[in-house]
Amino acid sequence: xxxxxxxxxxxxxxxxxxxxxxxxxxxxxxxxxxxxxxxxxxxxxxxxxxxxxxxxxxxxxxxxxxxxxxxxxxxxxxxxxxxxxxxxxxxxxxxxxxxxxxxxxxxxxxxxxxxxxxxxxxxxxxxxxxxxxxxxxxxxxxxxxxxxxxxxxxxxxxxxxxxxxxxxxxxxxxxxxxxxxxxxxxxxxxxxxxxxxxxxxxxxxxxxxxxxxxxxxxxxx
Length: 221
Hints:
CATH architecture of the largest domain: 3-Layer(aba) Sandwich
CATH topology of the largest domain: Rossmann fold
Strand order of the largest sheet: 2-1-3-6-7
Oligomer: single chain
């Protein structure tokens, strides 16, 4: 998943980035609202983690503007303001969840998963396609009676395919989902990870098909 973190506390931002990156997520960091606007104009995000008190304005104004534009990207508000009125106001404005600072990273991760499950309309971390089961929380692929562990980028790549089974996904979109702006990579890197996943899918009825000139799609016979 690709997240946008809007937070001006550099120490906290670095800790959140490190923790979410260990889970394999791609995280872009904006230290103010202006930078956040630049990021969201350049790419789509699966989730936004939004501070309220920022150097150039109030995060709630940013949230309100997003919803007014019809943008439905899930937003979790992170703030030291923990009064009930603040929480109610943010939720009524369109936030999907609210976590007061300081927070436990395990809780942050769990709330991110819960918000993303609600967005996809699922109540479980396990997705199935063909005779394969993919567990994003445990980072495993079940192929027949084999439970196969996935490395971080394999996990996130499979997450993209399982999120749109049967649909053609262009290479540039896969690069966008797997790598942050700070990483200098080519589309050839995607071929490497696709090759690894194909080996792990061997023996199942699920395959990653190359659609020449367009991209890849997850398919069954």
